[in-house]
Amino acid sequence: MIVLNIIFYSFIIVVSIQIAYYLFIFSKFAFLKPTKETANNKPVSVIVCAKNEAENLRTFLPFILSQEYPGFQVVLINDNSHDETLDVMEEFAEKHNCIKIVNVRPTEAFYGNKKYALTLGIKASKHELLLFTDADCKPSSKYWLADMSSHFNDKKSVVLGYGAYAKVKNSFLNKLIRFETLLTALQYFSFAKAGIPYMGVGRNLAYTKEEFFNANGFIGHIQIRSGDDDLFINQVATEENTAIAFSKKSFTISSPKTTFSDWILQKRRHISTAKHYKPAHRAMLVAFYISQFLFWFLLIPLLISTFNWEIVVVLTALRLIFFYIIFGKTSKKLNEKDLIFFLPFLEIFLIGMQLTIFIKNLIAKPKTWK
């Protein structure tokens, strides 16, 4: 009985924490109405860092080059590729004079370090506004560049965008990947609106060259091979300088992983980077994850034992109502409506996968940039 009392009161605390996150933080994005930004039309440098991405460049680069925007440059960074990446870049450059190629050769000090390659690309760019994406991404519309750049102004020097993954029919892994991406976006968009921006995704991210050089680039975390996107944003983003872009025109769409092993390796890199966030940011993310895990973990013995079952059912229903409302609104906003029916199953499975990944990272370090 004493053990069940402890579990019961712990469950009440956990549900309260979860509802507080949904009510006071995640609602800031879920119920946010889009505002039409004034067209910027300032010149932009689109930066794509590629390592062994010849086929992806052939497929996706035309979507960038066909953007409806008055003036932009595309900086293609070949990070010591071993395939035909450089040849493909040169083929495109012959047809499009807006392309600037930066061919990065390995150095002993920065071997295999994407941040070094990106730094060279940023230095070679000719425009103040920088928009980043990956070689396996395509803009969701011809107005991606215009929409992302419209959020820059005298106060806003960082723009966080949404990097979606392509939908694959009848694939549970694809739904899981997109749910995890949806949850991550809900978190970083919501915290940004709450005045606590802490990360962005390199698939769709923009900031000014001045912001980059004022922060001395990636030098503060150059020894950490991953995190060219989220660690940099964690370092420089503030309530005053950060904007978010979430209209469907501003999305990028990436090719998702097709096997659990590849996806787990990708997430291991991401999770290993998060431990380098500012302490306050780590604390708020850990508190959410632990409360999310404990909600399901504590619920099982309470339901089996039927201990105070009426209260447990009410608390469970209350938490799930907030969960569905917030994720329902967010999934519609970010064009992931097909996930709504599967939400609780995806959440439970993701929690288990994240726990597995965390344990794997304690045992061995994950691999980094290709």
TrEMBL record:
<feature type="transmembrane region" description="Helical">
    <location>
        <begin position="283"/>
        <end position="303"/>
    </location>
</feature>
<keyword id="KW-0808">Transferase</keyword>
<feature type="transmembrane region" description="Helical">
    <location>
        <begin position="339"/>
        <end position="359"/>
    </location>
</feature>
<comment type="similarity">
    <text>Belongs to the glycosyltransferase 2 family.</text>
</comment>
<keyword id="KW-0328">Glycosyltransferase</keyword>
<keyword id="KW-0472">Membrane</keyword>
<keyword id="KW-1133">Transmembrane helix</keyword>
<feature type="transmembrane region" description="Helical">
    <location>
        <begin position="6"/>
        <end position="26"/>
    </location>
</feature>
<keyword id="KW-0812">Transmembrane</keyword>
<dbReference type="GO" id="GO:0016757">
    <property type="term" value="F:glycosyltransferase activity"/>
</dbReference>
<dbReference type="InterPro" id="IPR001173">
    <property type="entry name" value="Glyco_trans_2-like"/>
</dbReference>
<protein>
    <submittedName>
        <fullName>Glycosyltransferase</fullName>
    </submittedName>
</protein>
<feature type="transmembrane region" description="Helical">
    <location>
        <begin position="309"/>
        <end position="327"/>
    </location>
</feature>
<dbReference type="Pfam" id="PF00535">
    <property type="entry name" value="Glycos_transf_2"/>
</dbReference>
<feature type="domain" description="Glycosyltransferase 2-like">
    <location>
        <begin position="45"/>
        <end position="179"/>
    </location>
</feature>
<dbReference type="InterPro" id="IPR029044">
    <property type="entry name" value="Nucleotide-diphossugar_trans"/>
</dbReference>
